[in-house]
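Running log. JK asked me to keep both predictions on one page so they can be read side by side. First protein, sequence followed by its tokens:
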Amino acid sequence: MKLGIMQPYFFPYLGYFHLINSTDRWIVFDTAQYIRHGWMNRNRILHSNSGWQYILVPLKKHSRKAAIKNIEIAANIDWKNRILAQLLRYKKKAPYYKETINLVEESLDENESHISHLNVRVMKSVCRRLGIDFNFDIFSEMDLDIGPVEGPGDWALRILEAMGATEYLNPSGGADIFDPGKFAASGITLKIQEFQNMEYDCRHLDFVPGLSIIDVLMWNTPEEIMAHLNSET
């Protein structure tokens, strides 16, 4: 069994779904400490003039050491309509605006109280649109009996051991925290997966690599996107 383990991000970039597409099972790692100014409650889309801008989910105040699973969404701010208004910039330019805005509305339809729950909804909606099998577990709800964790790279190893997985996939950006020798000693293959950004025509706007999956969906069909993901696997 090939396993992927990542924190839940808000409409993450295409490489995130490349990793999901390459695995048999996905673990939503929601017990890690929430880090400010990351991708948990924000991402980037094209700006109407040039460059990019953030879309953002406002959060309630929380302790500095709060776990991701405990981070709540601010309920007194009309952030959903703000995001939809920002996406109007695509309306007269992007060929798949209607399909993509419907996906965003579907993802934001429920009044989720926690950012991790919202992000799981996002992942489910995007994977359904792309035709990716999203077989997932939420780590905080699994009650796994794992061995000792001595460093950040041990979390994945202990989870894989407890689940009987044989291969672990991780993006190249996080490769430094893992000890290949430990994985090999447990009979687990550690695969660091590279990803090349998908380039596409944005008509009269400049292409910016690494934006939210929203941007990719605005300009490309699911078939075109999956052709790129499968070519990278």
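And the second, directly underneath as requested:
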Amino acid sequence: MNFPENLLYTEDHEWVKIDGNTATVGITDFAQSQLGDIVYVEIETEGDELDAAEVFGSVEAVKTVADLYMPVGGTVSEINGELEDEPELVNTDPYGKGWLIKITTEDGFDTDDLLSVEAYTEHVKAQS
């Protein structure tokens, strides 16, 4: 499994990359491997202000549908439009072209509940 060290993680298997007042969010390599082939990504929360842990969308794989949870609170400012025609990008490039949303905030992000790469790796091992 690939877990980049420059990211923060949630126990629900989302990753977040914070750059100033913008955070980019996706699902981890572990999550996409557990879901299998992703065939549809549904995110209809662009422009919505959501709290951490609220559902911002879902991914549909061949076998299941999984909710997506906000890793941090803020406004969903952008949705990855490429996923409409190429949802498989979440499988093939989960930390790059397969990103899901961008979140913005004016107050800074509360990262207290996010996991470091070491803590997330231990979390995944405990689930395996």
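Observation for JK regarding the second prediction: The mean pLDDT is 96.
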